[in-house]
Design brief:
The protein has 196 residues and is mostly helical. Helix content is 68%, strand content 0%. Helix 1 (13-39) runs antiparallel to helix 2 and helix 2 (49-60) packs antiparallel against helix 4 (81-111). The radius of gyration is 19 Å and the shape is elongated.
Amino acid sequence: VTNVLGNPALIDVANLLWPPLWLGLFIGAGFVAGQAAIWLGGRRWLKADGQRHAFISTVGLCNYYYIPMALMAPPVVMGGPEAVRATLGVLMVAMVGGEVAMWTIGVVVLSGGLKPGWWRHLCNAPALTVVLCVVANLIIGRQVLPEFVRLPVGWLGGCAVPLGLLLVGATIRDHVAAAEWRGAAPVVGLACLLRL
């Protein structure tokens, strides 16, 4: 919210259209590359449907959110706090394209097709917040939140990346014991190689 509302970089239509489009296309291209690798010989190592789905997902999904946000620290981005804020705002808008690609193409790949109600995943809190803030930024064009609201919202936003990483780790930990690891080396190894 604090990086999008009142962000002059997000009044430029090019910053609103190109970043989400390119990120969505990049993720889609990763899914296509994973599928192509299976067609070109991956079936020899990836025998089960679950292995193939996991392989395509690993190749297709890049870290479009956590790592770039951590790299936006003020010493890294030239131009001071306003340049960091402008860049983070554009990154948040790009994230919407990544969310759309992940919850459409990603769900199709993992589940083998679109299930009823798949579109509900597009309406998640981060994506809706960014879209609403962009609309408010275009209509109002300035920061409208008072300082006593903006400050705690900024603090909570600063917790998003570390908390998200902790939750991902906790979720993975819950599934590690139940996972079938025999035959997983080809899936992980080939997917990581192709992801590079």
